[in-house]
Design a protein that fits this description.
Chain lengths: 490, 490
């Protein structure tokens, strides 16, 4: 146990890590669910010296933080069984997959628990834009690299501006000397010809003539360009991910908590409470036997989509808030490839394809550069085909991904080895992806203590959105503070 | 031994990897020096089935590719002894430290030899500019982040341009619809206010008011901004470096060649040749005994600054070319820090400080993010203080680095643990840094076969500059082709 540093106390999106003290007399705690919120809560309780135990329905920790690799299996609800056959060292983060540098809640735990992180490349200039349909104008169905878009837009805009400055047609609030510096900057930044200050093809841009400014804007390719990256959300830079997959985070929590604190294959069926205790009944899915455990407090860190189906002694208001909470239809397909052709043939190292193809986010691995094989994220969506393909055979979903991604990468089918599909709505014990952000009033309701029961799922996150690990940690911290206050009063 | 892929055959800066066949009858080869050129040559000879051996004066492979870590020691020529005391897992690449993605020669070997690579962050928006002196204008002695520079320059330039478009003072070759798209792009890219289209402070930029465009340009901070990164040189992106330090590359070569092929502590004194054989005399620095080895060919892969002092049976023209080749005064200081304050306090993850302080390149580690300690590159120069501090005590050099870097990072002295200095001019068996690029005529002279002797040092590199590992590989490939042709004819 280490002292909290200034880093811990820095408020990130998840707020500030609670600084608590004291150990309550009667405070045996049961945590339901070993996802990030349950694990973070358990870890903090262990630091405070609580007597606690975690029940987890699966045979692994992490919940939505799930790294698929060779040997991974699951059977879709009412559907197919899959077994992953990728070589050792290859993996796909089927759930959480990237951490903005501002998410100091989860990053601090990585630091404290010794989880090595590497850069998640969230933008690569070599990656392609690709737009189908007449709306995209003359660049429809054309691969254009992000770097070409940047070079051609900035180059042509700077050429326009330099011309205007030269013709004194601008009302510039600058001295002559400053104007000269501005022109020098525009020429250098935009790779304009030093003599005639025009923009033309240049070696660092790669082969081919520049695309017309109007065509690039019409195609919408300029929409991604910003002077700087935002501090939060999916376009933040830098981002990080654990070496070896996101599962390293829940695994590190579990190691720190200790194996005796977690019971796996424990499918919770009911949560009851009275003046003396709370009682949880669960089925051991290995033996089929039902068991009960009692505790002073139960913190429910399960997806609310699961809680909605439990026999749970919560108020009608609470259960209404639970049932009103919706979860995403997130779906991912990982494609194991024989050869990292995107690196070898296209010089793409991490980053994403920017397309309007019905495959959503298509991403290149930010790990294992220059190794032989690799896993592409071939499909990541929360709607559209994530829903329409949900009940189609796995083979058909993979075919969909290969068909569309081949429009950009003709090498796809030749290099394809095997796929693994995770449609979260059909994953048992999840039955959905991340919680959709709820109105604050509902979150306030969900975070209320009801006698001996408290909800600590990511959906209750007060500061942070529930669709990031940071949200799960915010929820855990809120539950921790609430629980500790309650227990210290009792 | 694997077949060459399309990747191997792609011409990078080092040219194309030679595709050779056949095994000469009499071709015992001695390679002098186990730096990258000697190792790459040895590796290729082993693939061709040659009988060869490598002599190396040090007790390690790699030459200029040297990773300093806890336990590393060296004694400067005529100077001080150092022993590195950093914790396990901390290191500094004292020589080669970054590989542009276009350097397919060295990257292909990493792939073939299984050397894991990670991203070398060559530009981080959170890093600071800092300029001393009146030339920098009103921003002298002020820390300004690269991201602030980008946001403020692009924002103010876009505001100017939008105003001009609105006032129809530009002669735009665009339709009204295209103009509207252009304005939309400029507003979004520059984070302009959506209503009045003015540039103001905004949340993603961080706290504080924008800096004046004229002040930023005057300070020269705009000089680093380019629409895209170049494909070669020190501002390329992306770049890579091996996980665990650059030494992983020479170590992997050495493993592939096999330990029996390399003799360490073998300080070469003379290279003689006649019609029958070449003979190398060397001193075993452990025993002090002199030994000789004979071979059909000797390939000299030592720095030419070392060759200049050998009794080497080469022509007067060749020795003149050898002696005319100069080497850099490269010097680096690594600072072991107790706390990664640049990450915790400043949110800087990799990248460099852009300053005119007399410490040259000051860089943040692109590895071990969010771990506890870290090693800063506190000083990297080839001239100025790299020369004037050369004969000063180590402590004085470290004091110089701490004094100047503290102007930007006041935490330096408090968090400093211990330093390690590598002034290459004073490193035995190197006596200089990288070879300075020579005129092509001299390189042509250096690459000539002289009976049984051939030079394969990086300084002879034909396509690529000798100041990168890629140059050493280009030199090795050139020597390989030349040697094999020669041997097959004999």
């Amino acid at each position: 146990m280490t002292a909290l540093s200034s880093w811990d106390l820095m408020a990130g999106p998840a707020g500030t890590r609670p600084v608590l003290s004291g150990r309550p007399r009667n405070a045996k705690v049961l945590i339901l669910g070993a996802g990030i919120s349950g694990l973070a809560l358990g870890y903090e309780l262990s630091r405070l010296g609580y007597d606690f135990h975690v029940l987890e329905a699966r045979d692994r920790v992490g919940g939505l933080v799930w790294t698929v690799h060779g040997g991974t299996t699951h059977t879709e609800i009412g559907g197919e069984h899959q077994q992953c056959t990728w070589d050792e060292g290859l993996w796909l983060n089927a759930g959480a997959w990237r951490i903005p540098y501002t998410h100091t809640g989860v990053l601090n735990y990585c630091k404290e628990l010794g989880v090595p992180l590497e850069i998640f490349v969230n933008e690569a200039d070599a990656s392609y834009f690709y737009r189908e349909g007449a709306d995209a104008g003359s660049l429809a169905n054309t691969r254009v690299r992000l770097g070409e878009v940047k070079a051609d837009i900035v180059g042509q805009v700077n050429e326009l501006l330099v011309k205007a400055i030269d013709q004194h047609s601008l009302d510039l609030p600058l001295t002559a000397e400053d104007q000269e510096r501005l022109v020098g900057f525009l020429v250098a930044q935009g790779y304009l010809d030093r003599k005639d200050r025009r923009y033309r093809a240049f070696a660092d841009r790669g082969p081919g003539d520049p695309y017309q400014l109007s065509a690039l804007l019409k195609a919408g390719f300029g929409d991604r360009l910003r002077s700087i990256s935002p501090r939060d959300g999916i376009t933040t830079a830098p981002m990080f991910h654990p070496v070896g997959g996101m599962e390293q985070i829940p695994k590190a929590f579990a190691r720190a908590i200790g194996p005796s604190r977690i019971t796996f294959n424990a499918e919770v069926h009911s949560v009851r409470q009275d003046d003396h205790a709370a009682t949880v009944a669960y089925r051991d899915t290995k033996t089929g036997r039902t068991r009960t455990l009692t505790a002073d407090y139960v913190v429910v860190c399960l997806p609310l989509s699961i809680v909605a189906g439990l026999d749970c002694q919560l108020s009608a208001e609470m259960m209404a808030a639970v049932r009103a909470t919706t979860y995403s239809n997130s779906a991912k397909a990982g494609l194991g490839m024989k050869r990292r052709f995107w690196e070898e043939d296209d010089q793409i190292f991490g980053g994403h394809l920017y397309s309007n193809l019905p495959i959503g986010e298509f991403s290149y691995p930010s790990t294992g550069y220059f190794s032989r094989k690799g896993v592409l994220l071939g499909f990541y969506l929360h709607s559209g085909p994530a829903v329409t393909l949900m009940d189609r055979p796995i083979g058909e979903r993979v075919e969909h991904v290969l068909t569309h991604s081949s429009k950009v990468h003709p090498q796809m089918r030749r290099e394809f080895e095997s796929a693994y599909c995770v449609w979260w709505r059909k994953v048992e014990y999840s039955r959905g992806g991340f919680a959709n952000a709820a109105p604050l009033a509902r979150r306030a309701q969900l975070s209320k203590f009801e006698n001996r029961l408290l909800i600590g799922s990511a959906a209750t996150a007060p500061h942070s959105e529930p669709d990031w690990q940071e949200g799960a940690i915010a929820a855990a911290w809120q539950a921790l503070t609430s629980l500790h206050e309650h227990a210290m009063r009792s």
